[in-house]
Each structure stands twice: as C-alpha cells, then as structure tokens.
C-alpha cells in the first residue's frame, strides 16, 4: 500500500488495483466555442487545469497503472439523449446543434474529442457516457471488474457535475475514491470548494481529496524504496 497524505485522513493506494479516471476533458467543455461556453460559462478556469491533469496521467502511465478516459456525448440521432436534457434552459447552442466545433456533444464531432494535450493512448479505455455519471449506461463497471480495480483516482471536469456524480456512483459500488484537488475544476469556484468539502465530510462519506503533489511524492517515494 502507498500512503497518500489526503483529507480527511491518509488514502491507502494499492498498486495494481488502482485506476485513474479522467472525466470529460473534452473540447466542448474546456475550449472556447463549445457547449460549456454556450451555457454562459468562462472556460478559462477549466483550461487552467490541463497541465495538472497531464502530470497526473503521466504519473499513472509511468507506473503502468490503468488510465481510463470518459467523454459525455450522444449518438448522432440523439437516441440516447433525454428530451429534458436537450430542451432545458435557453443556451445559445443545444445538444446536437451545429456549432464552431461541430454538432454539440455528439460523438465523432470535433468538440466531443478530448483536448489534444490529454489524448488517450491507443491502449487506454475510453468510456462514452450519455449522462453525468460514468457508470450510468456504460461499460465502466465491467471494465473495472475485468481489471481487478478496487480504488479510483479521479480527475476532470466539472467538479460538482460529472466528477461528483461519478464519485458518488463509484462510492456506492464499493470503490475507494480519491479526488485530485488541483486536477479537477468547475466553472464556479464556490461549487468546487463545496464539492471537495462535502466529499471528505463525515469521515470521508464519499471519499478522499488530495493535492496532486502529495500523490506524486507518495508514489515517487514508494517507487524509489
Ligand atoms: C456538464 C460535465 N457539466 N462533464 N458535464 O454538463 O460535468
């Protein structure tokens, strides 16, 4: 076990049974002209974590530990997109509409792709999900079972939406989850802060949080020992 300094207490990371899940680092959420910006959000906050997420991915790859990427989106016919999701609110672009990066949140379109700096390697698992949670209507649970994974390190966007939903789904399924504080972000800083606080409240009711440097130091120290 690798002991990672974390809140609310150290996180015991078992090498060989831990995977990294990088959530929805897609152009539609992170880059100007995408779905996130069409909802009125400033995407600069999300762009700022790309280097930290890249470091985290590099850490897992250096250890030979699994890296799993998720993408939120829908098939071109929108058959897996509930009407409620498409029609809610008054965004300048709705799911499926043509935008500067192709049809918004549609699989295969440029905006649906993961940002180039974090592109998955050909042997890494990519989970396409129609909802906020990464377990709902996906193959993620089966992939984790096949790999013998019991612990998840989680990063990506947005902290209080797809990241938190995924972490709660995972927690309910028995996974021990660590959210990397500076490798996740929200369009709303107060929502990020509240999410981190509620995850680790009540003795880690949903899981743990830790800064990237703490994880890097712990893993590096274990590798050198
Ligand atoms: C959102 C996500 N915010 N990846 N998706 O709709 O958090």
TrEMBL record:
Statement: the UniProt record of this protein carries the keyword Hydrolase: yes
Positions of the Isochorismatase-like domain: 18-206
UniProt KW keywords: Hydrolase
Pfam families attached to this UniProt entry: Isochorismatase
Protein name: Cysteine hydrolase
UniProt-recorded Gene Ontology molecular function terms: hydrolase activity
Gene3D superfamilies (UniProt xref): Isochorismatase-like
InterPro entries attached to this UniProt entry: Isochorismatase-like_dom (IPR000868), Isochorismatase-like_hydrls (IPR050272), Isochorismatase-like_sf (IPR036380)
UniProt region (Disordered), positions on chain: 71-101
Lineage: Bacteria, Pseudomonadati, Pseudomonadota, Alphaproteobacteria, Hyphomicrobiales
Keyword Hydrolase: yes
Organism (species): Propylenella binzhouense
Basic and acidic residues bias spans: 71-89
């Amino acid at each position: 076990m690798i002991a990672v300094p974390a809140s609310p207490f150290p996180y015991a990371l078992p090498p060989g049974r831990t995977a990294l899940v990088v959530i929805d680092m897609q152009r539609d959420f992170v880059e100007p002209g995408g779905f996130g910006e069409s909802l009125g959000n400033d995407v600069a906050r999300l762009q700022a974590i790309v280097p930290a997420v890249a470091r985290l991915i590099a850490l897992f790859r250096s250890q030979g530990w699994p890296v799993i990427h998720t993408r939120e989106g829908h098939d071109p016919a929108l058959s897996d997109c509930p009407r409620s999701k498409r029609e809610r609110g008054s965004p300048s672009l709705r799911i499926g509409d043509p935008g500067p990066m192709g049809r918004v949140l549609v699989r295969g379109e440029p905006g649906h792709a993961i940002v180039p700096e974090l592109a998955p390697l050909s042997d890494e698992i990519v989970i396409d999900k129609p909802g906020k949670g990464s377990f709902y209507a996906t193959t993620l649970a089966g992939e984790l079972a096949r790999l013998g994974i019991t612990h998840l390190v989680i990063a990506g966007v947005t902290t209080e939406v797809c990241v938190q939903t995924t972490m709660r789904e995972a927690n309910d399924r028995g996974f021990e989850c660590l959210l990397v504080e500076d490798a996740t972000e929200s369009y709303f800083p107060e929502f990020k802060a509240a999410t981190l606080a509620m995850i680790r409240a009540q003795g880690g009711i949903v899981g743990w949080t830790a800064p990237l440097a703490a994880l890097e130091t712990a893993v590096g120290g274990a590798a050198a020992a």
